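Lecture notes, part 5. Sequence design as translation. It can be helpful to think of inverse folding as translation between two languages: the language of shapes and the language of residues. The source text, in structure tokens, appears below.
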């Protein structure tokens, strides 16, 4: 089997998801302590949902998250889990 594929009992998969999100009006607020806390929250949610973070890039005005995980969880669940855990209401 080619490298990078995960094998389950009834399936073979190699799914990667790339999410990008930004603060309201794309204000550059993701710096210093805020960026550190955001990274902690994203890593905690990834552990909770059994996701592997391949790359997390936090810029002052946006975030890139590249993850992989088991396809049993849908893309919507993944994006909601990460974005709701890191949003400020």
């Amino acid at each position: 089997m080619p490298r990078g594929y995960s094998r389950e009992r009834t399936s073979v998969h190699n799914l990667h998801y790339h999410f990008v999100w930004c603060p309201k009006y794309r204000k550059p607020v993701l710096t210093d302590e805020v960026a550190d806390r955001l990274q902690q929250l994203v890593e905690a949610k990834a552990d909770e949902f059994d996701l592997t973070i391949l790359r997390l890039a936090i810029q002052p005005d946006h975030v890139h998250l590249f993850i992989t995980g088991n396809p049993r969880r849908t893309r919507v669940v993944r994006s909601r889990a990460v974005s709701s855990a890191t949003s400020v209401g």
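The translated text above is only one of many valid answers, since several sequences can fold into similar shapes. The chain has a mean pLDDT of 84.
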